[in-house]
Structure formats: structure tokens, C-alpha cells
Design a protein that fits this description.
It is built from 15 helices and no strands. By secondary structure, the protein is mainly alpha-helical.
């Protein structure tokens, strides 16, 4: 229930990103203290892969906390959540608990249905009824659009996974996941978020490569036809509203031209390019440990005062790129921690995707890998891991895919050794 609630409410309610994970942590703590089941001793014990994941979370969290301590500030995001540096460490603890007591996979699928469909309904209402400039559900439009896109892609993968299962349970869930996929993509389109769509071709290619060998020719033709209809629908939606990703892509091209020709750093794209160059200069000046939380803002303001950076940069407390911002803020140490946070789950999910022939295992491995790849793409033009929903979404979704994957592998191992053929 908690897994389903987290995925469902991440974008739909203001408190979803923190209240549901907090309840899960309370449950885990209470269960650890109060509940002892001798029959489960040794069950869900961490293996080398789990320990690598926990280590990557602890390293990222620990370095961030040290950076906060040396800077003497608690302001760690645009929302001002001073607890964010501790979140990866808390997620590591929850991972340990969920490895011992894994949730049911249906919680993830139902969460994608509600979350993706809900985001689409909200976006349609805001754009066509309220006439909003960009659909955002009262939050930053960029995380809303990026996470809506990710929920849509994950729903699509789950739907495709059910297509080649012989007798999938809950037959209504397959079309519901397809509807959630369309709704999530539409919500992202109506948010006007363009940076996240950089990752779409790679996500689409990975999904197609995974399912192509197992889908029939008829199913592939249906999928291709549906993709074309969805593309036409999204383009038509942009034409009706006279706004969306298409218009913003055109504006981005104009911004790049103005920046290269006229040096205009005040536009959306021009300001990003300015901040990326500034971040590169900051990193070169302090390459090992960076400037720190407070030091980065002070260095940025100094560059603005000297005319080296556009004054518009003062409005932002991050450099609109996870890699650039981390390099300037925490130097090489921070870059290594960030690459580990991405790399460890990416390698582990890819390993199981290549090894396994089981349908459910491959769907979970592909879903986890897509979460990582998507956030790498999102992080090229936005500091998603400094956004409360971005950080919560990355850790929650990737960790959920991981514990469900390991639970499925445990079931397969039990069956291979002659156990009862019960599946989760």
C-alpha cells in the first residue's frame, strides 16, 4: 500500500514526496524493534549487490552532509529542505528493511496507473480549463514535466511486459497502464518541459530493444501504429494550445543563436549556458572539494559583480545541471559520489537485464535502468537531485524496482530448487 501510495501521490499532492516515505520509515523502524519472526531469520539478507547500493547512497549522503557542515548552512534546495542531505542515508535503511520484507509488485503497477493518469488529468485541466501558461500542479514545471514523462514511460514498459505474459492476472490493468502511459507523456508535453525529452529517444530505443524479440509481428505493428497516433495527438495538442514542447524547442534554438551571435545571456537557454561556464570556472579554481553550499553562491555573486556572469543567475541557487552544480559545489569528490549514485544501480540493473530470461525480472530490471538513464538525461539541464520531488522520485522509484527485482529472483531461485511454485 505504501509503495502504491508513494508512486501515486508523488506528483498529485504537495506532501506526497515526504509523508509516504516517512510512514514507510516509521513502519520499518517499528517492525525492526517490535517484530521478530524466527522463521524468517536470514531471509532477505543483503548480498554484495545490495551492499554496493547502500554504500553509494551512504557516500552521496555523507559527502553532502559534510559539505553542509563546513558551509554552516541548512539551505539545501530551492524549497529550503534542510533534511535533504540525509535522505539517501534514510533510503539505504529502508532498502535494508524492504529487502527483508519486500512489497508486492502490484503496488508499483497500480501507482503508475494512478500517478500517470492523475498527472495527465491535472495537466489537461490546467491548460484547457484554467488556461495556464505551463501545466505544473503548483510546483516547478520542470520536475512536474520530467517526472510525468518518467511515470508514462514506466507505465508503457509495464504494459508491454504484460503483453507477452501467457495469462496475466487483472486483465484490466494492461489497458489501464497504456492509458497512464499516454496521460503521463501528455502531461510532460503540456508542461512545456523540453530538457527531459532529450532522453526520450534513448529510453524508446532501450524499451524497443528489450521487447522486440518477444513481441509478435502483429503486436509490434500495433505498437508502432499507437506510437504514431500518440505523436500526432501530442503535436495536435500543441497546435491547439499554441504552446508546449514544440514552441519551447523553437525558442531554445532562437536563444542559442542569440547567445552565440549577440552574447545574450538573459534568455532561458542563454542563462543556462552562462551558469554552466561559470560552474566550469569555479571547478577549475577549486577542483578537489569545490566551493561548498555557501561558497558557490558567494562565488556566483562575485562573478556577477565583475560582469563575468549575467545578473539573472542570482535568481537561482543551482546551476541547472546536476553534474556542473556538483562539480562546482563539491569538486571531484562530489562528482565521484554522483557518478556512483548513478553508476551502481545502472550497472546492477543492466546485469540482470542481460542475464535473465524471466519476463517479470526483465521488466523490473529495464524499469530500474530507465529510471537511472532518465535522471541522467534530466540532470543535463536541471539540477533534479536538488529538487525535493526529483531526489525523492529518483531514490524511491529506483529502490522500489530493485527490491522487487531481488524478491522476484528469490522466488525463481526457490522454484529452481524444487520449492512450491508460488510467484509474487
Amino acid at each position: 500500500m505504501l509503495l502504491g501510495a508513494f508512486v501515486s501521490l508523488l506528483l498529485l499532492v504537495p506532501w506526497g514526496y515526504k509523508v509516504v516515505p516517512s510512514l514507510a520509515l516509521v513502519l520499518a523502524l517499528a517492525g525492526t524493534v517490535l517484530y521478530r519472526d524466527p522463521t524468517r531469520e536470514g531471509a532477505g539478507r543483503l548480498d554484495g549487490e545490495d551492499r554496493l547500493w547502500v554504500l553509494s547512497l551512504a557516500a552521496f549522503s555523507g559527502l553532502w552532509c559534510l559539505d553542509i557542515a563546513r558551509s554552516g548552512v541548512l539551505h539545501a534546495s530551492e524549497q529550503g529542505s534542510g533534511t535533504m542531505p540525509c535522505w539517501p542515508l534514510l533510503v539505504a535503511g529502508l532498502l535494508v528493511w524492504w529487502r527483508r520484507h519486500p512489497p508486492l509488485g502490484v503496488g508499483l503497477w497500480l501507482g503508475l496507473v494512478v500517478g500517470g493518469s492523475g498527472a495527465g488529468v491535472i495537466a489537461l485541466y490546467e491548460r484547457f480549463v484554467l488556461g495556464a501558461y505551463r501545466a505544473d500542479n503548483g510546483m516547478n514545471a520542470i520536475p512536474f514535466g520530467n517526472l510525468s514523462l518518467l511515470l508514462g514511460v514506466l507505465a508503457l514498459v509495464a504494459m508491454l511486459g504484460r503483453l507477452y505474459r501467457p495469462t496475466p492476472s487483472w486483465s484490466w490493468l494492461t489497458p489501464a497502464l497504456g492509458l497512464a502511459a499516454v496521460a503521463g507523456l501528455a502531461a510532460s508535453f503540456l508542461s512545456g518541459t523540453r530538457g527531459g525529452w532529450v532522453a526520450v529517444p534513448l529510453l524508446a530505443w532501450m524499451s524497443y530493444s528489450t521487447f522486440r524479440p518477444v513481441l509478435s509481428r502483429r503486436q509490434r505493428l500495433k505498437l508502432a501504429g499507437g506510437s504514431w497516433l500518440l505523436t500526432i495527438g501530442l503535436v495536435a495538442m500543441t497546435a491547439i494550445t499554441d504552446y508546449g514542447v514544440t514552441k519551447r524547442v523553437e525558442r531554445a534554438i532562437d536563444d542559442i543563436r542569440d547567445y552565440m551571435v549577440e552574447g545574450d545571456g538573459g534568455s532561458s537557454v542563454g542563462l543556462r549556458l552562462e551558469m554552466w561556464q561559470a560552474g566550469g570556472r569555479m571547478f577549475m579554481e577549486k577542483p578537489l572539494l569545490g566551493w561548498g553550499e555557501r561558497g558557490l553562491e558567494e562565488a556566483r555573486n562575485t562573478m556577477v559583480d565583475r560582469g563575468l556572469l549575467h545578473p539573472g543567475a542570482r535568481r537561482h541557487d543551482q546551476l541547472h545541471s546536476d553534474l556542473v552544480d556538483t562539480a562546482a559545489r563539491r569538486g571531484l569528490a562530489g562528482v565521484v559520489a554522483l557518478l556512483t549514485l548513478y553508476g551502481v544501480p545502472a550497472v546492477l540493473f543492466m546485469r540482470h537485464l542481460r542475464r535473465s530470461r524471466d519476463a517479470r525480472t526483465r521488466v523490473l530490471a529495464l524499469s530500474g535502468l530507465l529510471v537511472v538513464i532518465a535522471f541522467i538525461g534530466f540532470g543535463l539541464t536541471q539540477s533534479m537531485l536538488r529538487d525535493v520531488r526529483g531526489l525523492s522520485g529518483y531514490m524511491g522509484l529506483s529502490m522500489a524496482c530493485w527490491v522487487l527485482l531481488k524478491a522476484r529472483l528469490a522466488v525463481l531461485d526457490f522454484e529452481s530448487r524444487g520449492g512450491i511454485g508460488a510467484t509474487r
